[in-house]
Design brief:
about 35% helix; 6-stranded mixed sheet; 5-stranded antiparallel sheet; elongated
Length: about 450
């Protein structure tokens, strides 16, 4: 009887055990948005303002693989603008870049040991085909060695305000793939990492500072060294471009990435009806949890669909907006004793079309009084836009939702005689106020 009872108890515990096991499995879909993303991290931003429209685990440092090359692109385009590197400049192949270029298991265009290539050829190979040896060649051109180039990458990351990053090479490969020639000071098996938010910030500044990057990133197919014995067909790894297998309307960039450590990643950008979005998905998997190239494009499409269908740029505060409970600030020693104030510029940003009423203005005055003469457009504070409920993700650069509050007119300084009578009036006004307080205190 006791043995039978123990058996029954064990059977009853099985469902409870199964429930507890499945309850501990994390669900990656975000409950608020219902996007159902299968990623380790994701973010979506408005490319114009940097307004964050959605994020998921965006502050966790993860592998970025060849999305690293956006930093190499940034530094090259900066050098081109500065004139320190030229598009027709010739690069002579080194032992390092020759050996790497022959490894077709990596993304590469083969380089001749005794060959020379223009910077434009190498740039196109990097931006379109994610060619790794071409990327190192660019790094060597700019800084002499990849080790020195790494210093420039870190310096630029700091300037751009990136956080949580670690660069160990210019390509995004694992250092184990670099034949023991990885940059000095980095580990033999190290790999680049960065949070999705910092990847998006890098992409945001790349498009702001060097929008011509899209002229190359949008190329779906191109022949490397066309007309020579070294020609090779390059298909862009961003299969969301027009004409490719997972094409998505408006996509024209920006950079894919894949390693065993990072999984399948992509920083995408698309423009529709004057609105450009930037998305990042990291370590995308399919609905069954399996890593696949297609998964990163499927998850990016979900983000873009969400952004283009749910959000629009809306004016929250118009120009010359006045606050009912604070339409003026006090002015001393002026022909007028107060001056009108208002919001100088309109405040507009991307929000969900249905959520405009959730954003309210709050006045923050830096100056509660001014001394004449006051000039028009003198800044007296700012208006901060606060969300009354729910979550607002803010901006990719950390700025707040605000605009300057300024004087709408000038107030000249009063004449000497006017100031004299103002002083007398103020004296007797204060005297009478003191007497009234004293008398009131007696009773």
């Amino acid at each position: 009887m006791k043995k039978t009872l123990n058996t029954v108890l064990r059977l009853l515990l099985v469902p409870a055990l199964l429930i507890s096991m499945f309850a501990g499995i994390p669900v990656k879909a975000n409950a608020e948005s219902g996007l159902g993303l299968h990623v380790d991290a994701a973010i979506l931003i408005d490319a114009d303002s940097g307004k964050i429209l959605y994020e998921e685990n965006a502050d966790t440092s993860l592998g970025i693989a060849s999305m690293t090359k956006m930093m190499t692109e940034y530094l090259l385009l900066e050098a081109i603008d500065a004139g320190t590197v030229k598009w027709d400049q010739e690069y002579h192949v080194t032992d390092y870049t020759y050996r790497m270029s022959q490894n077709r298991a990596l993304s590469n265009v083969p380089l001749r040991a005794d060959g020379s290539y223009t910077i434009r050829e190498l740039y196109e190979a990097m931006a379109i085909y994610s060619a790794n040896a071409a990327t190192v060649a660019i790094a060597e051109t700019i800084a002499g060695t990849e080790t020195e180039f790494l210093k420039l990458m870190n310096k630029k990351a700091e300037e751009l305000g990136l956080e949580g990053y670690k660069f160990v090479n210019s390509t995004g490969l694992n250092n184990a793939d670099l034949f023991g020639m990885h940059p000095a000071g980095t580990g033999a098996k190290d790999e680049n990492v960065m949070p999705a938010k910092s990847v998006a910030k890098l992409a945001y500044h790349l498009l702001k500072d060097h929008p011509n990057v899209l002229e190359t990133s949008k190329i779906a197919k191109k022949t490397f060294r066309e007309g020579t014995d070294d020609k090779i067909e390059m298909s862009n790894w961003n299969f969301m471009l027009p004409g490719l297998v997972f094409q998505y309307e408006g996509v024209d960039g920006l950079k894919t990435g894949t390693t065993d450590f990072a999984g399948h990643c992509i920083t995408g950008t698309a423009e529709r009806n004057g609105t450009r979005l930037i998305s990042v998905v990291m370590k995308a998997v399919d609905a069954n949890g399996q890593s696949s190239k297609r998964a990163r494009f499927d998850e990016t499409a979900k983000l873009f669909n969400y952004g283009f269908s749910q959000f629009s740029k809306q004016e929250i505060i118009p120009a010359n907006y006045k606050f009912k409970d604070q339409e003026t600030v006090k002015v001393t020693k002026g022909k007028e004793n107060k001056v009108a104030i208002a919001v100088k510029e309109p405040v507009s940003f991307m929000i969900k079309s249905s959520e405009k009423d959730l954003y309210k203005p709050k006045l923050e005055l830096d100056k509660k009084s001014l001394e004449a003469g006051v000039k028009k457009d003198t800044v007296v504070g700012k208006v901060v836009i606060e969300r009354t409920e729910g979550t607002d993700y803010g901006f990719i650069d950390g700025k707040d939702l605000s605009a300057d509050v300024v004087t709408t007119e000038a107030v000249e300084r009063a004449s000497g005689i006017s100031l004299f009578f103002q002083g007398i009036s103020s004296f007797f006004g204060n005297l009478w106020s003191g007497i009234s307080d004293f008398v009131g205190g007696l009773f």
